[in-house]
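note to self — DONT lose this again. spent like an hour looking for the file last time. sequence + predicted structure for the chain T wanted, 131 res
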Amino acid sequence: MRLLLTSIVLMVFLAGCAQPAQTSTETSEQPTGVKHEIEITSAGFSPRLSNIKLGDTVVFVNKNTAPHWPASDIHPTHGVYPEKGGCISSKFDACRGLNLGETYEFTFFHGGRWCFHDHLKPNLVGCVDVQ
């Protein structure tokens, strides 16, 4: 009887070990934390389209002598990015003009295409695709 019970326990144990390992497909909870630079010049944002992962940060760097103010679309409300709490509407807003050499960093925690503009020169635009 003891041998039979031991055999059953051993078979159950081995059957459990034979199951394939489960993998998670949810990468949104594992932010990568990579930084991506976007330069701002008199010609606009470069690159104009960036592809990043959820949890990555975009660093806007003003390379121009004129100030530039990166902010979420739509001008002038800056309200497209869903995370609220910035100086005008969304958190995706530098809230002031950046002088030559100054930077503004924003970490994206919402997937999608998030377009932005220069609040001081609204014809300068770009987008970030967050996957």
